[in-house]
Design goal:
Strand content: under 5%
Shape: globular
Oligomer: single chain
Radius of gyration: 16 Å
Structural class: mainly alpha
Number of helices: 3
Helix content: 40-55%
Order of helices and strands: HHH
Length: 109
């Protein structure tokens, strides 16, 4: 199992991180929009050094979408992670499939 490197953002990195969050949030939201209504987001570079920041930005983007859809503005990132964990456990208990996350399991992604 590969571990994600701990990444401590510096103040000057906040605008880059915020852009990543906005890009991921927009891309997730676009999955629910008709083609002509979809945004045009910049391509992000996929590098090993930025993986931790990218995955963190994805989590924040998911929380932003959750807040927008549900109207629940009081949930913080730890509360949202709890919601994600409950959803994962509920899915498994309901007979959901576990995605293996290997290259073969993510073919076409």
């Amino acid at each position: 199992m590969a571990f994600v490197k701990r990444h401590k953002r510096r103040k000057k990195d906040d605008s880059c991180f915020d852009r990543k969050v906005a890009t991921f949030a927009g891309a997730i939201s676009d999955a629910y929009r008709d083609q002509p209504d979809r945004g045009n987001y910049p391509k992000l570079g996929l590098t090993e050094d930025a993986l931790t920041e990218d995955f963190t930005a994805m989590l924040w983007a998911q929380m932003m979408l959750y807040r927008r859809v549900t109207g629940e503005k009081d949930v913080d990132i730890l509360g949202f992670l709890g919601i994600l964990n409950r959803l994962a456990v509920q899915n498994l208990m309901d007979g959901g499939q576990v995605v293996d996350g290997t290259e073969a399991g993510m073919a076409g992604q």
